[in-house]
Amino acid sequence: MDIVFIRDLEIECIIGIWGWERKMPQTVNIDIDIGTDVAKAAETEDIEHCVDYKSVSQTVTSLVKEGRFKLVETLADRVAGHVMTVYKVPWVRVRVSKPGAVKHSREVGVMVERGSRD
Predict the structure, then answer these.
(1) Do 56 and 84 meet the contact criterion of CB atoms below 8 Å apart?
(2) Is 40 a catalytic residue?
C-alpha cells in the first residue's frame, strides 16, 4: 500500500470542553496519512487517478472550521471518516494536536487509524 500524506495542516476552530474554549477559536494541527495505490497515477500522470492532497486539505479545513468539537478524539474520528468516505480509500491515519494545551508541552493530541492496510 502506498501512502499520500499531509503534514501540519494548521486550522483555527472551536475545540475544547471549557467555557472559554467554546467561545474562542484555537489552533489545531492535523497530519493525515492516506492509504492508496498510486501506480495508475504514476503511470498515467493523471490527477484523476490519485488522491488529490489539495482537495483533501480544502475539504478537511472546511469540515474542521465549520465544526464545534469538544474533544480532539471526536475531531480526529470525524476527519478520518470524512477522508475514507469522500475519497473512497481503504485506510487512513489522522493525528490531531493542540499546541500549548498543556503547560511545558509543545503539543498534545490523539492519533486514530481507520480501515485496513491489507
Answers:
(1) no
(2) no
